[in-house]
Design brief:
With 276 residues, the protein is an alpha+beta fold. The chain has helices at 2-25, 240-275, and strands at 35-42, 58-66, 73-75, 82-85, 89-93, 101-104, 110-111, 117-118, 124-128, 145-146, 152-153, 156-166, 171-176, 181-187, 189-191, 199-202, 205-207, 216-218, 227-230, 232-234. It is built from two helices and 20 strands. The longest helix has 36 residues, at 240-275. Belongs to the flagella basal body rod proteins family.
Length: 276
């Protein structure tokens, strides 16, 4: 029985090593959120059995949970580099035909040949509609649209775009060569009732699930969404010192369980030798 118990500990230590190694490997990934392996003990006994004479049966993995704590904000000076100071996520839309909606904390956005603002995977950043005063007019997912940089002033086709600014509340303003300004929209943000239920899909992107609940859409500055910081990127929420300590602990746990298996094997072999 001790062999099975130690084997479960060995597997748990391997999982812990894998989780910590993944955290360390992504310490430079923009918007990455670290994970933690959570374990529980295994114990079983008959209703009439005295539990004081029963040892546990080992350990099991309860789950690998991501930690959505805030990462440090690093200045880049580039307008389309955006970070969230809060709990919100940027909303992006995939390529046709699926056009899947996903959520990200990686705000390293660029402009493609069609003047669309896209993330590192080519997904299009979504905006909410606003009026001339910069107030949003809808928070419905059906009314969101792609973030496209205007080429000219809508009221003066001879005036070209000269500058884009993004305020802390996510309002995108365009300035043209004739001095006019217009509101392009507000960066769409999402929050979730149970953020731990999001499904990670890589590249600091997540999908909503039945566990996370539906996305609650609004502009920055509302509820738990936080604010948008233009010219800034969010670093991974990794403390390398803490992860290295966890790596050492997981390694020692693995070695201890391996030693326990070796000891149990030696004891079994000694018993066999006594009987022969």
């Amino acid at each position: 029985m001790s062999f099975v118990t130690s084997l479960s500990g060995l597997k748990a230590a391997q999982t812990d090593l894998s989780v910590v190694s993944n955290n360390i490997a992504n310490s430079n990934s923009i918007g990455f959120k670290k994970s933690r392996a959570e374990f529980g003990d295994l114990f079983a006994s008959a209703p009439t059995q005295n539990t004081k004479s029963v040892a546990g049966q080992g350990v099991r993995l309860n789950g690998i949970v991501q930690q959505y704590t805030q990462g440090s904000l690093n200045s880049t000076g580039r307008t389309l580099d955006l970070a969230v100071a809060g709990d919100g996520f940027f909303i992006v839309k995939g390529q046709p035909p699926r056009e899947a909606q996903t959520y990200t904390r990686n705000g390293s956005f660029t402009v493609n040949v069609d003047r669309e603002v896209v993330d590192s995977t080519g997904n299009k950043v979504q905006l909410l509609p606003v009026n001339a005063a910069g107030q949003i007019t809808s928070t419905s997912a059906a009314d969101m649209y792609d973030f496209v940089l205007p080429e000219t002033d809508p009221t003066d086709p001879t005036a070209v775009l000269s500058n884009i600014t993004i305020a802390d509340d996510g309002i995108v303003s365009a300035t043209y060569s004739n001095g006019n300004q217009s509101r392009v929209g507000a960066v769409a943000m999402a929050s979730f009732a149970a953020v731990e239920g999001l499904r990670p899909i890589g590249d600091s992107h997540w999908q909503a699930t039945g566990v996370s609940g539906v996305a609650l859409i609004n502009q920055a500055g509302n509820g738990p969404l936080g604010t948008v910081r233009s010219g800034t990127l969010e670093a991974a929420n990794i403390d390398l010192t803490e992860e290295l300590v966890g790596l050492i602990a997981a390694q020692r746990n693995f070695q201890a369980n391996a030693k326990a298996i070796e000891t149990a094997n030696n004891m079994t072999q000694a018993i066999v030798n006594l009987r022969s």
